[in-house]
Amino acid sequence: MASRAVQHRQKALEQMNLKLTEVVSDMNGKTGMAILRAILAGERDPQRLASHRDRRCKHAQATIAKALEGH
């Protein structure tokens, strides 16, 4: 059931044209959950969302921000 919930979140992000799954390998990790919480709280600015990136994330903040430009 947990994997279905993750797949459901990934599908919802793809439908919003947010390519977060391409730059964050673990959606349940620190970076993925922080960004998802910010989105649910109403944040839409890609730069501010990308600022939730954990320092151990291999992709740069600019790359994550570009992946979060959706509609």
Descriptive labels:
single chain; 71 residues; mainly alpha; 5 helices; globular
Give the topology string: H per helix, E per strand: HHHHH
Q: What structural class do helix, strand and pairing data support?
A: mainly alpha
The protein's oligomeric status is single chain
Contiguous uncertain segments of 5+ residues: none
**How much of the sequence is in beta strands?**
under 5%
**Overall outline:** globular
Average pLDDT works out at 89
If you had to describe this structure to a student in words, what would you say it looks like?
By secondary structure, the protein is mainly α. The protein has one domain (2-67). It has 5 helices and no strands. The model has no long low-confidence stretch (mean pLDDT 89).
Chain-wise SSE layout:
Elements: H1 2-15, H2 20-23, H3 30-40, H4 46-50, H5 61-67
Task: Summarize it.
The protein has 71 residues and is an all-alpha fold. The chain is 58% helix and 0% strand. The chain contains 5 helices and no strands.
